[in-house]
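Q: How would the structure tokens look for this protein?
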Amino acid sequence: MPHKSAILTIDDSPSIHMGERIAFLESKGIPAVWFCRGDYLEERPDFAIQAIRAGHVLGNHSYDHSYFSKLSLEQAFDQIDRTDRILESLHEKAGVLRKIKCFRFPYEARIGTPEHHAALQAGLKARGFVPLRLDGVVSKAFLEHAGSGDASWFWTYDTEDWKLVAQDSPEAKERMDSVLWRMDRDEPDADCGLNRPGTEIVVMHDHGHTGSQWQSVVDGLMAKGLHFALPA
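A: Here is the predicted structure in token form.
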């Protein structure tokens, strides 16, 4: 299987499993961008500090995972600023300079009206949030997003690990098989399959109920030849 360049992004951190997941990624030589909720950072700051010291990037994923398309601009920027203050404090406690400021909208709910969306993106840029610019991406959805000049981060491949259920659920194996099967489907326009050429930005989720199934998803990605690195 030929190697493909990729970035691993992980939403909704930190969960109760983040510490062991960081250790697992380190064992595989995989750095990641963890998009963190402010309320979870307040609950589990030690995992965030562990990630920072391990060389990972912590991104801003709002304070409480609200639908930004439904928030006023004042509410939206309060969510962003509140979480950013927490991230700055955690980098200070870790003794590590913050590498990059990146933001991803919860649910990708970034567009209310065109004017609302434009104001959100302008506010992100004014706060120093940096768009993701990569060579070699072929995903039409990602290129459209990047071409609009948005500062928020999109992805090329959604693992749909958010569909996984607890390991003791009767549906657990079926759901996991479905997540792994999607990686082999040759339907890139439907966000399925990792067989196409080009750089990938993969999204996973740091959900507490998925347990060690999370590691199985990462193993599946590696089996598709993805070689993960942080953005330059």
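The chain has eight helices and six strands.

The two ends are 25 Å apart (CA to CA).

Upvote if useful.
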